[in-house]
Amino acid sequence: MNLQAAGGRRRTAVYGAALVLLLVLGGCGSTPNYPQPAGDNGQILVQLNGAPREGAPKAKTREVRGEYTTGRQSVEQGKAFERVDYNAIEDVVVIVDGGGPILRDVPNLAPAAGEITLDDSGFNRAQYLARSRNGGASFTMHNQRKQAVHLYGFSETDDSFEAEVSAGALGTINVAKAGRYDVYCEEDDSLHCVLFVSDTGLDWIGSSDDDAFFDMLPPGEYEVHVYAPRLPVWSRKVKVPAGKRETLTAELTVNNLPKVGE
Amino acid sequence: MACLTAQAGAGLIKPTMNRLPLKLFLLALLLGCTAVVTAVVKAQLGPRHLPNARYLKAAAFQDGEWKWADAQKGNLKGTLTFSAKRPQQPVVVYLVRLGDGDKPGEQGVFSAPATLDVSQKGGKFEPSFGVLVRKQKVKFLNDEENEISHNVYFLGDIEADLGIFDQGQSREHEFADAGEVSVHCSIHKRMDGRFFIAPNPAFAVLEADSDSFEIKDVPVGKYRLHTWQKQKRFKDFEATVEVTAGGTTSVTVEMKR
Q: Which of A45, A234, A259, B17 has its CA 20 to 30 A from that of B155?
């Protein structure tokens, strides 16, 4: 038997297996299959890419001796030191603006916002989204606390709302105009969340490990805004041609902020 | 014959085995050279240029030549009225000195107050709220008891990243302009704070139990009075006021929806 030939075949087999493995892994991590644009309609796919700050170190560990065992545990103990998970940033809101009034007729593409729940640990989300109907929107709030709460919200354009929800009850928060509202609570000044009321017809809320996909768009110019809690707003203008899909990657990170202290 | 082939095969493989350490040596040499070249280039370029903070909606105020210390002064006092329940949160009343055409003018040269020290012990900013004046410094100290690193960045009217600093280290920042900033740590999800930076020293902070204020020793001139609320519940109020030498100007600040 020729050893050189045998070695060559083995190498070929190894490379082949590696290629197959790469293809399988690549396939697992690739973009889900979205429908192709129909007719003259266009699409926008916003891929959300969360990234921790460059140079952020992992938590240090220290040795902990038990009665029978010895192990290591993080020095960052407790709720105060909970770390941001940049692989799955929750409650990211994407709002697409532009395209003209025809967008109001586009069917509901985004998942509806879930109800607001308030319990002793706070609001269940950092951000909520509702689509405007006839100019305004309503949120249903479940107050799981043992006391009534008074919520008030103000937008950047000075629109406001107030609502009181009894202890253990479901209440309705009516917001008269579209906008981004900072919401506070009279009884607990540590509470804060943001309500988005979108009137563009193109909106989405979800986690950064998912994509925001907008279909059936008339060709034209659009502006995409991505709002992630505690991160800079990401905005881009995009021209959507007829029958094409425009794919954008929204960077959810602080890495693009001006660095002034290093 | 098979033995001869095996020997020949072994002979063919042997030189490859001998080349491995040589390859490793060349790789190490290449990495070493790269490190040296990088170090030389860095040394030639000098320290990295540091960009300024990004001032978005923050107003860009000019100081001018005149000095607060030398100016004639008067006082301003006022009362806040609320069209609904007053928020149990601080309200800031501040003045912007007006120039030609009643537009924001030169704010004057003044001494910035002492640096505001902010602790980060226990994974929280303390204080987590503050009202500062333009040109005042804030110093973030990582005074954790354990080896925990923190980061500080600003969002809002002023955007900047002060970097990552380890236990025992600190970072200072001077706010060049006025505005509202939220302060966060990119590592820990619950480390948040908020600052308001006033354009000049003529401001008053009304705590939750107070509806009246007095701002003393304001240089004589025309000003635009503004309000800022830590947790906004009313439309912010604006009015033009005139401060006269030795006099006390009164104003009613109406907070409405």
A: A45
